[in-house]
Amino acid sequence: MTELSICVLTRDNQEICKTTISGILRDAQLGFELLVIDASKKYEDLKQYIDGLNDDRVRHVHVVAKDRIEHWNQAVTECKGDWITFISDSDHCDPKIVQIIRRMKNEAPDVESVGWNKVDYDWPEHRNEIRATKISLESGAFKVDKKKMQKRFFGFEKEGLIPFNIYHGIVKRELIERISAKFSGVYFEHPVTAYEFGYKVLAEANELAFMERPLSVISEQSEEMLSEATVFEDIERKKSLFYKDIEVKDSLSEFPFSNAWSPKILGAVALRWLADKYGDEFIVDGWESNFVKRREDECNAIYSAEYFDKLSTLYEKAIGNWCEGKFANEFTPRYSQRFLEQKDIVGCFHGYLFIDKNALGAANPAEFYSALENFIPPTSNLGLKIIEKHKKVA
After folding, report:
1. Can you give the pTM of this predicted structure?
2. Are 305 and 378 part of one and the same domain?
3. Same structural domain, 60 and 22
C-alpha cells in the first residue's frame, strides 16, 4: 500500500535533482513512493540514474508540459499515494511523514491536510552573508481553526505560503479530487500553483492539522530565502530563481500591483484571481486595508536601501491609484537597518534554534536536515495524540 506520494518537480536541473533523490532515499522508511516528475527536454541522464538505483520506491516520469500548470496537473495523475506532497528539485522532505499518516488514521481521521514548520536553507554556492536559519524545537501536533486561518490568509492578516498545502505539506487524495471536481475539473489552474492550491485547501478541507516540528527543507526558490537578501544584485538573482517556470500576466484590471515587483505579490495575485472567478468564498471584509499594511511590513523588513526605495515607490503609486486613493494614508513605510544586526544570531530563543548554515558542514538540504535531527525531537514524538481543541499557528 502506498500511503504517501512525494513528488519532486524538476525541469532542466538534473545534477541537483540527483542529490535531492539520494537524500530522500537514504531514509529506510517504507510505505511511500518518490516520483520524479521531469519536464526536461533532455531527461535521459536523470532517468538512467534513477533506473540504476534499483530502488522500487522511486520512479522517473517524463512529462511534456508547456508551463507549470500542466507540469503540476500531470504530477497528481501519476501519484498512487493516499496522501500527496510536492517539493522542488532542490528541496528535501522527510519520508517518515508516513508514520504521522498512520497515527492520524486513528487519532484524527477527519484531518485532510497537514502543515508543519519548514527549514529555510540555501545551497552553499548561493549563500549570502545572512547565515542563520530558524529551527522549531517543539513537537506539538494539533488541529487548527479553519475559519481563523481563512480570516488570516484571505483577509491578509498574515501573508505567505499557506502551510496547509500540497507544496511542503500533505493533502489527502480525497480532498484533492474534491477540489478538482469543484474548480473547473483540474487540480491547478493558475500559474502561481502553490498559493492557488493552498487557498483552495483552506476553503474546502474538513479539518486541518499542524506539526510544530520541521519536516521539510525549502531552498532558495522560496520567498523566505529572498527575504534574507541584503545586496540588490542578490535580491534580483533570487527573484529570478523564484520566478523560474512561473509566467504570470498582470490581468487584474482593478488590482494595480504587478507580480513582477516582488514574489510576495504572487500570493495576492492568485487570491484576487480566485475571488474574481469564484466569488465570495475567497473574500474577507477589510482585506484591502490589511493588504496595504502587509506592503508596508514588506518594505520595512527590506535590508537593501536601494531595493526599499524602488519597491516602496512602486507601492506608493499603486496604492494612491487604487480604490480612489482610499488607503493611501495607511502606507507609511520607513527604512531601517536594524534587521542587519540579527544576521549572526545563534542559540536557542523562545522554542527556536538559530543556527549558522555553515556550522554543520552540510553541502545540501538533506545533509542539513540529517544534522538537525540531532537537535530536534524525533518524528516518533509526532502525532501520538492530535489535540482535539484548536490551537493557534504562529
Report:
1. 0.90
2. no
3. yes
Domain interval for residue 244: 226-341
Question: Does residue 240 sit in the same domain as residue 380?
Answer: no
> How many Cβ atoms are within 10 Å of 224's Cβ, its own excluded?
20
Alpha-carbon distance of 65 to 10, in angstroms, equals 11
Same domain for 73 and 194: yes
What tens digit of pLDDT does each residue of 143-170 get?
A: 999 999 999 999 999 988 899 999 999 9
Residue 378 confidence class, pLDDT cut points 50, 70, 90:
confident
Q: pLDDT tens-digit profile of 5-63?
A: 999 999 988 999 999 999 999 999 999 999 999 999 999 999 999 999 999 999 999 99
- As a whole number, mean pLDDT of residues 261-280 equals 88
